[in-house]
Structures are given as structure tokens and as C-alpha cells.
Automatic annotation (TrEMBL):
This is ADP-glucose pyrophosphorylase. The lineage of its organism: Bacteria, Pseudomonadati, Pseudomonadota, Alphaproteobacteria, Rhodobacterales. The gene is glgC. SUPFAM superfamilies: Nucleotide-diphospho-sugar transferases. It comes from Cereibacter sphaeroides (strain ATCC 17023 / DSM 158 / JCM 6121 / CCUG 31486 / LMG 2827 / NBRC 12203 / NCIMB 8253 / ATH 2.4.1.) (Rhodobacter sphaeroides). Its EC number is 2.7.7.27. Keywords: ATP-binding, Carbohydrate metabolism, Glycogen biosynthesis, Glycogen metabolism, Nucleotide-binding, Nucleotidyltransferase, Transferase. Belongs to the bacterial/plant glucose-1-phosphate adenylyltransferase family. One of its GO terms (molecular function) is ATP binding. InterPro entries: ADP-Glc_PPase (IPR011831), ADP_Glu_pyroP_CS (IPR005836), GlmU/GlgC-like_hexapep (IPR056818), NTP_transferase_dom (IPR005835), Nucleotide-diphossugar_trans (IPR029044). One of its GO terms (biological process) is glycogen biosynthetic process. Residues 14-268 form the Nucleotidyl transferase domain. It comes from the Bacteria.
């Protein structure tokens, strides 16, 4: 029997937007879409949103995929499809749905391209979710708030420091929660006297009355329809947009769309109690589990102090230079580090082996020469970067070795 306190979601459908590349993650997304990137061991970023949907009772979902969808599609079909009853987790790849090599032209265009399927399901409300954020949320509560507000569009909002707000859609609301203004990624973020030093931003989570959204999509022509640039500004102008704040003072939500944000969020789950519920550990192969947090099998034991982890080698543990140090650093699945390595604020990409004695993250100029280093100091290390470094250093060493051989002769 359905909980009387929970909204009836039988006429509610979900579209999960999972086609983004995540270009600010650079080489990490050269072969994977952003939602498929690993996070918190054996999990992927998309797992947080799927776990939220399953817990909330949103069991009918279209997943709109596009960039590099192969790994994501396999993950969803093998790990999540069984949790959505009767084939209700449906993958809709952009080029296949649109018949165009460009695929979906915008976030709202992904909904427009699948609108006929949604309308055939008798959908009343449409929940639109982003697949690339880390958080825990009950979407059923947001649907209930949407219905109570009488608005045609409801936007989930959170607050971030003002200096970060230009990365998001910035929202200003009335005391009653009606959205009075919406600016998509503004260059200058207007001050909000109600929350000094912070700004209210869209989380990329929406609830729409489907009939209203369908009518709006018809008057916004073209294949590049976008929620942030087109739909939400129109909803605000019509007085049809309402903001929803997740209840509680300790709500955790992270957009992990930059190397710095991705590394720091991973550390929040590594160095203490998880700041929000982790998606369940879905059965994985022995190989996947072994590689889930990077391989450190050549080490005898590990000590953790805050963000610093020290690893003692099985052989030569009495030699300080053989210890490995990871300082605020993240090893992604399949990554390996050898004894004597020192990593500071570093992300080691999947499958990358860091050779013995290498020091990364302590010399900004040296880091930037071989690896990708952000202005905030995060260093990304990949196999091709290490190969290029080894090849260049080999060319420098060869003439010196030849000259020594010549003198010996």
C-alpha cells in the first residue's frame, strides 16, 4: 500500500540528461562521458542520481545519452535496469532519436525529441534530472511541493559562494518562493542581500507540468532548445516558476564538473564519514572490485592522517625514500603507484601507473610542463602524459650517455 504521506507518482515520469561531455574535466572525459566517470570507489557519478530516483519512487525514466555513451549504456543496463520495473529504464541516444549526426541540440531539445513518447504515457508531471552531480535527495518531496505551489515549473536550488555562482543559473526569489529572476551563468553575479557572500543557484533539477512544457517547446523553434537559456527565463517572465529548497541545514550537493571540484569531492568521501548517502554497491566482477580504488597491493600497510595517506612498501620499509605519500590525492580505478612516489593534490587517471620515486604536485612549473595543472593546483596525470615525459627525458639523457661512452672508449 502506498504511504498516505507520499505523493502519487503514477502520472510522473523522469528524463535523465546524461549526454554531456564535461569538457572542463579535460582528458578524463576524452573517452567517457562525464556521468560515467568513477566516483567513490566502484561507483560512477550517475549512480547518485539513479539511487535518488529509485529511493524516491520514480521508476519510469528515459535516459538521454549522447557523447561517448557506450560505457554509460552498459553500466545502466547491467547495474540499474533491474531496479526499474518492466523495462522502464529506457536509453534514448541523441543521434538515433533525432536522425541527425548532431543529436540533441540542447537540454530541452532532448525532452522535445522524446515528447511524443512521454505524451503517449499519460504523463502529468515531468521530472528532469542532471546525471552529473553528487548528492542525496528525495524527488517525491519536490513533486509534492510543485503541486502545492500551483506553478508550471519548479526549480531545485541551493546556495554557493558568490565567486562560484557564475558557473550556474543564478536565481532570485520572493519570500513565497516564486522565482523573480533567472540569469544563466552570468559574468557578473548580482549581490543578494538575503544571503551575503552567497548566491542562490539552480541545481539542474526541474519539475514541469508536461502540458505546459509541451506548449512552450512549440513556441521556441529550433533544435537547440535549452532549459537555462530558453525555458526557465520564459517561465520566470510568465510568473510560472517556483523555487524548491531541500529541507535541512546540512544538505550536500556538489557539481563535480571541474578537476578541482572532482578531486575535492572525492576526498570528502575518502577522508571521513560520507557527507551524504552512497549509492548501493551493485554487484561487480572480482576484477572491477580489485581495481575500484586504485591498486596498492605492493604495500604492506597504510596510515591516514587527514588528507595525507602514507604507504609502507613490502620491501625496504625501513628506507624513508621507499614510502609512498598521497596528499589530498585521488587514485581512480585501475591506477597504480610504485614505492617512493609523492603525490600532492593529484588525480591519477584510470589505468595509469606512476613510476617509482616520481614527485608530482610540489613544483608548479615542473607539473605544468608534463601534466595538466589547474590554477587552483590540482594536477591530472594520465598514461599518455607519463609516456611523453619519459620519452622527452630519454632524449635528454641519451646524448649525455653517449658522450660518457665516447670518453670511456
Amino acid at each position: 500500500m502506498r504511504d498516505a504521506q507520499r505523493p502519487d507518482l503514477s502520472t510522473t515520469f523522469t528524463v535523465l540528461l546524461a549526454g554531456g561531455r564535461g569538457s572542463r574535466l579535460h582528458e578524463l572525459t576524452s573517452r567517457e562521458c562525464k556521468p560515467a566517470l568513477p566516483f567513490a570507489g566502484p561507483r560512477r557519478i550517475v549512480d547518485f542520481t539513479l539511487a535518488n530516483a529509485a529511493r524516491s519512487g520514480l521508476t519510469r525514466m528515459i535516459v538521454a545519452t549522447q557523447y561517448r555513451p557506450e560505457t554509460l549504456a552498459h553500466h545502466l543496463e547491467s547495474r540499474w535496469a533491474s531496479r526499474f520495473a518492466g523495462g522502464s529504464l529506457r536509453l534514448r541516444e541523441g543521434t538515433a532519436v533525432t536522425g541527425s549526426p548532431q543529436g540533441y541540440g540542447g537540454t530541452a531539445a532532448a525532452v522535445a525529441a522524446n515528447l511524443a513518447e512521454l505524451q503517449s504515457e499519460g504523463v502529468r508531471e515531468l521530472v528532469v534530472l542532471a546525471a552529473d552531480h553528487v548528492y542525496e535527495m528525495d524527488y517525491a518531496d519536490m513533486v509534492a511541493a510543485h503541486r502545492a505551489s500551483g506553478a508550471s515549473a519548479t526549480v531545485a536550488v541551493d546556495t554557493v559562494p558568490t565567486d562560484r555562482a557564475s558557473e550556474f543559473g543564478v536565481v532570485r526569489t520572493s519570500e513565497g518562493g516564486r522565482i523573480e529572476s533567472f540569469l544563466e551563468k552570468p559574468a557578473v553575479v548580482p549581490a543578494d542581500p538575503a544571503i551575503p557572500g552567497r548566491a542562490q543557484v539552480s541545481m539542474g533539477i526541474y519539475v514541469f507540468d508536461l502540458d505546459w512544457l509541451a506548449s512552450v517547446l512549440r513556441i521556441i523553434p529550433g533544435a537547440t532548445q535549452d532549459f537555462g537559456h530558453d525555458i526557465l527565463p520564459l517561465a520566470v517572465a510568465l510568473g510560472e516558476a517556483h523555487a524548491y529548497r531541500v529541507p535541512g541545514d546540512n544538505f550536500y550537493w556538489r557539481d563535480v564538473g571541474t578537476l578541482d571540484a572532482y578531486r575535492l569531492a572525492q576526498l570528502e568521501f575518502q577522508t571521513g564519514e560520507a557527507p551524504c548517502a552512497l549509492p548501493p554497491r551493485i554487484a561487480a566482477s572480482e576484477h572491477e572490485m580489485k581495481a575500484a580504488t586504485g591498486e596498492l597491493i605492493q604495500f604492506a600497510f597504510r596510515m591516514q592522517t587527514g588528507g595525507i595517506a602514507l604507504h609502507s612498501p613490502r620491501l625496504g620499509g625501513d628506507l624513508p625514500g621507499r614510502w609512498t605519500m598521497l596528499d589530498e590525492s585521488v587514485l581512480l580505478p585501475g591506477a597504480r603507484v610504485a614505492p617512493g612516489v609523492r603525490l600532492t593534490r593529484t588525480i591519477v587517471a584510470p589505468g595509469t601507473s606512476v613510476p617509482a620515486g616520481l614527485v608530482i604536485g610540489e613544483d608548479p612549473d615542473e607539473d605544468a610542463r608534463w601534466f595538466r595543472r589547474t590554477e587552483e593546483g590540482t594536477v591530472l596525470v594520465t598514461t599518455p602524459m607519463l609516456a611523453r615525459r619519459a620519452a622527452d627525458r630519454g632524449r635528454l639523457v641519451a646524448p649525455f650517455a653517449d658522450s660518457r661512452m665516447g670518453r670511456s672508449a
